[in-house]
Amino acid sequence: MHFFRFIFLCLLASPAAAQVAPAVPHAAHTSTPKAHALRLRPGDDLRQSLTAYAQAHHIRAGAMVTCVGSLTVATLRLANQEGPTVYRGHIEIVSLVGTLSTNGSHLHLAVSDSTGRTIGGHLLDGCRVYTTAEIVLNELPELEFRRETDPTFGYQELVVRPTVELKKEPILEPAKKSRAQPKK
Question: Do 64 and 97 form a contact (C-beta atoms < 8 A)?
Answer without folding.
Answer: yes
